[in-house]
Structures are given as structure tokens and as C-alpha cells.
Amino acid sequence: MLRDVFEEVLEDIALVRAIEEGRQSETANRAEVFAIFEKAEESA
Questions:
Q1: 44 pLDDT exceeds 80?
Q2: Cα torsion 23, 24, 29, 31: sign
Q3: Spacing of C-alpha 21 from chain mean position
Q4: What is the pLDDT of residue 5?
Q5: 16 HSE (CA, 13 A, CB side)
Q6: What pLDDT is stored for residue 13 in this prediction?
Q7: pTM over 0.85
Q8: For residues 18 and 15, what is the distance between their CA atoms, to the nearest angstrom?
Q9: How much is the pLDDT for 3?
Q10: What is the rounded CA–CA span in Å between residue 15 and residue 7?
């Protein structure tokens, strides 16, 4: 039970950090995002 709580806290911290990082980064349009996804699929 304590482990589950600890995991949830770590996930919440990671989510907050990802949101903060996203707010500080440049925006990307839909085409740019899908181009990145397509490259990743080709590499896999």
C-alpha cells in the first residue's frame, strides 16, 4: 500500500514537471507533431 502511494506521488511529480517544461518550450503545429510520429514509426 505504501508503495502504491509512493508511485502515485512520483507520477504526479513527473506530470507537473512535464507540464512546466511544455509551457516553457516552443509550440508546434499539427503537421510538425505528426512528422515526428512518422519518423518514430519508421525507426521502430
A1: no
A2: negative
A3: 9
A4: 96
A5: 6
A6: 97
A7: no
A8: 5
A9: 95
A10: 12
Closest CA to 25 of 17, 13, 36, 35: 17
28: left (phi over 0), alpha (psi -120 to 50) or beta: beta
Q: What angle do CA 15, 20, 21 make, to 5 degrees?
A: 95
Kindly report, residue by residue over 1-27, the tens digit of the pLDDT: 999 999 999 999 999 999 999 999 999
Whose cell is 506521488? That residue is 9
d(CA 41, CA 44) in angstroms, rounded, equals: 5
CA 15 from chain centre, in angstroms, equals 8
